[in-house]
């Protein structure tokens, strides 16, 4: 079945461009459009999309609050949120990830990258592009923990191997890349990632990466 996509952006021309790109793919179907966060919430309830392509800065209700109401704590609906951003709005992206977004993508990304991102998010994975993540976190390095703060108690629930996996997730590595780095199978990595998310009460890899930086476990630019 086709992946059902809702387009949310306050610029009609951008929505039209996204629609043309997505409807050219046999496995994607645009089921609705919205020009602000309030409309997005209404459309999600009415259309039950699999993925919401969400702009951040919009009238009436921005994409962060809309994301929180669509996928935040206590929300069990199927919709995943993929945030569209430009680098001058990166601070909003961090808030959107905290609010429950499954990933973020630059507005000027190639069409093939947009299509692939939607497929990845629809499959339940997080869109955590290493290059974007590093630039985002480096830009806000001064606002992140120094690493000298007290380590959260929840981090102590992880095994040594799970901590290693969390650090690599925070660097944006895929399961296959982590498996190669640690000389284990990809299935083993998936198991470790699952344990990390469960023990820390996190939804996906994006939240795990944010947790790793905010807890001081990983610093921008660290290897």
TrEMBL record:
It holds the Pfam family Response_reg. The keyword rRNA processing does not apply. The modification 4-aspartylphosphate is found at residue 55. It comes from the Bacteria. InterPro entries: CheY-like_superfamily (IPR011006), NreC/VraR/RcsB-like_REC (IPR058245), Sig_transdc_resp-reg_C-effctor (IPR016032), Sig_transdc_resp-reg_receiver (IPR001789), Tscrpt_reg_LuxR_C (IPR000792), WalR-like (IPR039420). Keywords: DNA-binding, Phosphoprotein, Transcription, Transcription regulation. This is Response regulator transcription factor.
């Amino acid at each position: 079945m086709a992946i059902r996509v809702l387009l949310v952006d306050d610029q009609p021309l951008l929505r039209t461009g996204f629609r043309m790109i997505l409807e050219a793919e046999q496995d994607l179907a645009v089921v609705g459009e919205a020009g602000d966060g309030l409309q997005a919430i209404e459309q999600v309830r009415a259309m039950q999309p699999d993925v919401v392509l969400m702009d951040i800065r919009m009238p009436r209700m921005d994409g962060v609050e809309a994301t929180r109401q669509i996928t935040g704590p206590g929300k069990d609906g199927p919709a995943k949120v993929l945030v569209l951003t430009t680098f001058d709005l990166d601070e909003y992206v961090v808030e959107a990830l905290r609010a429950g977004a499954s990933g973020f993508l630059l507005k000027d990304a190639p069409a093939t990258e947009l299509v692939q991102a939607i497929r990845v998010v629809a499959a339940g994975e997080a869109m955590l592009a290493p290059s974007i993540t590093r630039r985002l976190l480096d830009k806000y390095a001064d606002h992140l923990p120094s690493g000298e703060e007290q380590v959260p108690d929840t981090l102590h629930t992880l095994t040594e191997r799970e901590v290693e996996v969390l650090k690599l997730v925070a660097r944006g590595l895929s399961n296959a890349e982590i498996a190669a780095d640690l000389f284990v199978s990809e299935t083993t990595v998936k198991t470790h990632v699952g344990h990390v998310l469960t023990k820390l009460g996190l939804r996906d890899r994006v939240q795990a990466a944010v947790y790793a930086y905010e807890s001081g476990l990983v610093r921008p630019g660290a290897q």
